[in-house]
Design brief:
With 347 residues, the chain is an alpha+beta fold. 24% of the residues lie in helices and 35% in strands. The chain contains 8 helices and 21 strands. GO terms for molecular function: ATP binding.
Length: 347
């Protein structure tokens, strides 16, 4: 069943279009991530679902009910803010129970439900502490519990991990995803972090300039990008401009790339992922010259020039007996990849 449906949603600010005619559905228990660069319209979309911004056109449906005209407090949603927005003068338990208090839930029931929500995020032992006495990760989990206690039709996450350091971000990311799956929470999350979107979501909606460029699973967008923007934005890709010829793809600098198995014959761009390219000193493929070698631990990144066309290659770091171990900049190499791993794309 559909928990959320956006129908022809549009938001204009004067002559500027923040979101252009968006249609989207989220099934019950699904986590969908809105991903894209700053200013693409993802946060505006989230706030229209929450009711903080009114759409210029279109409808917002929750569990089949049109809530477009309803105020935020009349919608069965819970929004976890980027800044946590915890009340500093309230204990953890009081923060979690605040929404229930606004709904006129009795004190005894409110305390019981708040404690249960804190148990779900493993913070019931900190119920009497104040936000200032918690770590950033603990504060984020309190914010999650404050939303969970309301039993919302849809959970809204606005850049939920942006205030955490890298190590803690990974831990909390796993906790949120595990909680979402175990409780089957219907969730819409906004993020600009590709790793968060790829690892946490059931589906991605990639936006740019107020429009949806592609929607689908992480594998859909990574393996089958719809256009050059998607290929360049999701993960890393060599996106090269040129034209399709009978014998392959001619780049604007004159290099000839192997034929791609998928795409349109009138495409202007050729895309191949760095990890899909094999690099050797000798063997099949196109010849190039090494411009840069970056040691990354388990992997090594090579920049190889095919004439004036640079290609990035990522491969396992060679062992001491590997022929590539002694490779130096300026030396010739051969690059090879399957046509099944290359795509022809338009703008």
């Amino acid at each position: 069943m559909k928990s959320l449906e956006l129908i022809n949603i549009r938001k204009e600010y004067g002559d500027a279009v923040a979101v252009a005619d968006m249609n989207m559905q989220i099934q019950r228990g699904e986590l969908v991530a809105l991903l894209g660069p700053s200013g693409c319209g993802k946060t505006t979309t989230l706030r229209m679902v929450a009711g903080f911004i009114a759409p210029t056109e279109g409808s917002v449906l929750l569990d089949g009910h049109n809530v477009t005209e309803l105020a935020p407090y009349d919608r069965n949603t819970a929004l976890v803010f980027q800044s946590y927005a915890l009340f500093p003068h309230m204990t953890v338990a009081q923060n979690v129970g605040f929404g229930l208090e606004m709904r006129k839930v009795g004190r005894s029931e409110r305390e019981s439900q708040s404690l249960e929500a804190l148990k779900r995020v493993r913070l019931d032992h900190l119920a009497d502490r104040y936000p200032r006495q918690l770590s950033g990760g603990q504060q984020q989990r309190v914010a999650l519990a404050r939303g969970l206690v309301l039993n919302p039709a849809i959970f809204l996450l606005d850049e939920p991990l942006s205030n955490l350091d890298a190590k803690l971000r990974g831990e909390v990311r796993s906790e949120i995803r595990s909680l979402q799956q175990s409780l089957e929470l219907t969730t819409l999350m906004v993020t600009h972090d590709q790793e968060e979107a790829l690892t946490m979501s059931d589906r991605l909606v990639l936006m740019e300039a107020g429009k949806v460029r592609q929607a689908g699973t992480a594998q859909d967008l990574y393996e089958r990008p719809a256009d050059s923007f998607v290929a360049d934005f999701i993960g890393r890709s060599n996106v090269i401009e040129g034209r399709v010829e009978a014998e392959g793809f001619q780049t604007v600098s004159g290099a000839l790339l192997p034929p791609a198995a998928a795409g349109k014959p009138d495409a202007r761009f050729y895309s191949v992922r760095p990890e899909k390219i094999d690099i050797t000193r000798d063997g099949p493929g196109v010849e190039g010259a090494v411009r840069e070698i970056l040691y990354l631990g388990a992997q090594t990144e090579y920049t190889v020039m095919l004439g004036q066309t640079p290609l990035t290659v990522v491969a396992a770091t060679p062992g001491p007996d590997d022929a590539l171990a002694s490779l130096r900049t300026g030396e010739p190499v051969r690059l090879h990849w399957s046509g099944d791993n290359a795509r022809l794309l338009n703008d």
